[in-house]
Amino acid sequence: MSHPLIEADVRANLCLHDIADDPSSIYTLPMSYLVAIIDGLQAQGIADRVRIYFDDGYASVLEAVQTLRTRAPEIEIVLALTLEFLGQPGRIVWSDIDPLYDAGVGIAGHGREHLHMAELSDEQNLAQLVASRDALARYGADEFVFPYGSYDDRVVDLNDRHQLFKVMTTIDYGWDHGQALRPRLMATTEMTAGEVVARLASPD
Fold it and tell me: Could you report the per-residue pLDDT of 39-72, keeping only the tens digit for each?
């Protein structure tokens, strides 16, 4: 019997941040956690049905991507980049992006600054969206990931009116049927790797 993700012909999206063995926050997860997720997805035969995001451009993404490419090349990877973070301590630099992109990693916008967009004016939100689009255009970035998962109908309508990004991505969980408002599950230290894999297998 095939897995529900396969039967439904959908994807599940997973949001990760920093991958480090010395956790500094609930968003910092050890490499063993990522490996356990990979192993769990492969054991269930659904690795090719899961898209993994790395938000905020932590330098650890370089090793994490290498691990994913080696152990599970079937998993799609997306890097969500906040422009002001690039080049800061512990973050990747602009020159890191080209080899990641050449290796098949998708590049998505994540704001000029990392701001709660539901709290901004339309003018401020438009500036965030346009800056991301323009800076990442050479990478074919057609996706915008909301910082903090913060958005409202105004932001979505603003993007639609100006036709800036095809996909806007949240941390509202659900299965991905190809909708323009893309759902994701955010993994933290409050969930085990096994719980993450099980949650990805459920539509709600």
Answer: 999 999 999 999 999 999 999 999 999 999 999 9
Whole-angstrom distance, CA of residue 74 vs CA of residue 200: 16
Burial bucket for residue 190 (CB in 10 Å: 0-12, 13-18, 19+): exposed
Residue 22: domain span: 4-200
pTM of the model: 0.96
Greatest Cα pair distance, the chain, in angstroms, is 51
C-alpha to C-alpha distances, 79 to 25, 116, 141, 157, 162, nearest whole angstrom: 20, 19, 10, 24, 23
- The structure tokens listed for 190 are 């409050």
CATH assignment at residue 174: 3.20.20.370
